[in-house]
Prior knowledge:
- The chain is an alpha+beta fold.
- Helices cover 49% and strands 22% of the residues.
- It is elongated.
Amino acid sequence: MSRLLRWVTHHRLAVALIGAIVAALGLWSFASLQIDAIPDITGVQVQINTQVPALAPEEIERLVTLPLERAMGGQPGLDQTRSLTKTGLSQVTLLYKDGTDQLRARQLVTERLAAVRDQLPAGSTPQLAPITTGLGEIYYYELEWRRPPAGMSPQQQLMALYEAQEYTVRPMLRSVAGVADVNSNGGLELQFVVEPDPRWLMLHGVTAAELAEAVGRNVENAGGGVVSRGSERFTVRTDARVMDATQIGSIPVKFAGGVLPLQVRDLADVVIGAAPRQGAATQNGRETVLGTVMMLVGQNSRQVALPVEDALPGVRAALPRGMVIDRQYSRADLVDRTIHTVERNLGEGALLVALVLLVVMGNWRAALIVAFVIPLAFLVTVSGMHAIGLSGNLMSLSALDFGLIVDGAIVVVENSLRLLAARRRDKGEDLTAEERRETVARAARTVARPTCFGIAIIALVYVPVLSLGGVEGKLFQPMAQAVMLAIVAGIAWTFTIVPALSAWLLRAPSRDHGDGNATGVIGYAQRGYAPLLERALAHPLLLVLAALALLGGTALAFRSLGSQFTPQLDEGAITAMVYRPVGLSLEQSLAIEQRTERAIRRAFPQVTHTFSRIGTSEVATDPMPPNENDLYVFYTPEKNWPQREGKPRTKQELIAGIERVARGVYAGQNFDFAQPIEMRFNEMLEGVRADVSVKLYGDDYDVLERAAARAKAILERLPGTEGVEFETAGRPKTIVVELDRAALLRLGLGTQEVNRAITDAIAGAEVGFIPHDAARHAIVIRMNEALRADPAAILALPLRVGEDGMVPLSRVARLRQTRMVEPILHDNGSRRAALMVNLSTSDLEGYVTRARRDRRQGGAAARLSRRVRRAISPARGGAAPPRDRGARRARADLRAGLCRAR
């Protein structure tokens, strides 16, 4: 240390040059630093989406979800499994421990899928979701018609929007670096639909399956290979593919004794229709097509969102005339606002520290030297963050404490001033440059050990944070790493640049520095502190008792403070999870959502725009039933809101107003409000979009729903509860085709004939496609919507008996209406039900503690636990029911306290 200090005080220009080089490197690192709003807390996960057409949720659970969960178990690093099963879809999400290689995990899943694929129902197509994270949705845009062509119907407009999205916009945006995939909501997929009439099928002796086979055999081209004729070479192919609805209608189905064969048009209407859809999208109350850009794992959201924005002009040029694409949400805006706030706070903090130094130290040269450490230490910190791959975000940059960084520099400069003043007094005249250098080096050497030791103790406080794992580690480790880098940088500059500048710029004060005769703020502080110190030393016992009393009071006050995982970041947007009655059709839900958005825009001028995603998107990363949707509301800065009586003046008042207006449109819709990133945080932590989740496990949903209803009633009475909602409220209706097996036996029919009739006529059978430029339009056999919903038409479907016989479905089956559980949710292979609890208090931990304490102290929650144990326990003296394992799991979970919060 002595050699270093002698060298830096004697080679000021070399030290300045080194400082300039380090600062230049820091500026380059700052320009190259990845900038984000918050750290991505998503762990390694792989999602398997399996489309299962025409099966009910319980069938899909038994035939697809459970086999996939069993096949995926036991993988290295696998930590947790979640699944969702709904009509037409099985989704299995595999969560891995930290440090698991993402690509290796996907490879293992792919290998196991190959082994289990043959066990799945015919037509099932398990696919891996894009390689993105839970916070990977970084950009939303919408396609709409600004000026639709004359004569184009609303249905045709939605079909054109869908084709532009699928075959123009998605391929262009997928080519942007860092984009994993582009998801779609809304629009209509054009299909050529053959709509058979059961009466005409019966009249002409043709089943729906036979019609599908006939169409499928006559819509494709074939190749004849290559032939040679003399010296020339030819390729042979047929030109048999149908290209429009008229050609489909002319396909022969059955040859009889007539002049012309029976054709498709004799049995069905051939129309240009749309595929049944599971989702839709709206923007400002208009139906539209919404696109979602998903970011690759490991990429920076801002550095991906900005190139996507830059690609939009090229996309606009490729769209049909009159169609436009507009941005709805970009993560880059939030990042820019966050970093602007951080930059302002850091700048104001640095200036404040410099002013305080000037006032307190009373020497402008000394204050300037100490303040000079702030930008240098910050640039070194940025260089270290860039080197270790740490992004600049709200957690890493906001944690920097400039007062902590300059502590060592203050000690060195103050000691230098003290020794310079003492040596000048002893000499009786000004010091030479060599004497100043020696004095400064001795001053820094004297305080080096205690200064480094004291700051090292402060740095060690952050070491335990580095040991955190999971979500906590991903969120708080960047803060600890940035602070420790800043502390090390401050120490490095304290014993290099500070002694060099002190030896060059400092002059010995005219009076002893720190002799008790100081002027200014320090003088007043010394004169006020000295009497207090004398009295304290005269009464040590009283001082200790007062300190202990203060410590006890502080401990009591600390226990009453609220606590939560992280402070809430204002993202400048509102997200509402909207829940409507179970079983509501997509069309009705869409109409309600459009009216709701228009009412919100009329009532609140500060709302700039809204959009929503209803139901399930093309890539089912976040599947929802048609009665649920995510509503996004964007608004101007609060300082620009109209300050009129009766108008909301804060964000909370705006949320309350939105809910009030929406319920005025349709009273049956409920809302859970959050923010875009906050909503994803909640869902990633526990798979539920709420502040606190209450999960119950078991095999019998009747028991789980009764227990959840009782828990809901208790939590609603608990102070701090804003709202409690069932994750899935109610059960949608289903129509069951019940077979008369005796009748089937008498007629010599198998169940396959009935299943085929139901699948082809109601679910639809794709038998071919018609290409049009880059698009592919499927040819589908499916009854029209009116007949599909008509029980009489379903029962009139013809079944083939023997070679020539025909009977209607009503001869061997009847229809029964019931309710089914949908969706079916699993955690680690066990069925679960959940409550979503949103809080009106920031004390999340205190809320959960109160709920658990009420149970332990024999309160209502304990009584609920006892009632549920009795409800799911087997009858005394009788045999245990076959679902006893799930009952034991439910009882264990209830005894654990019901509430699980992160």
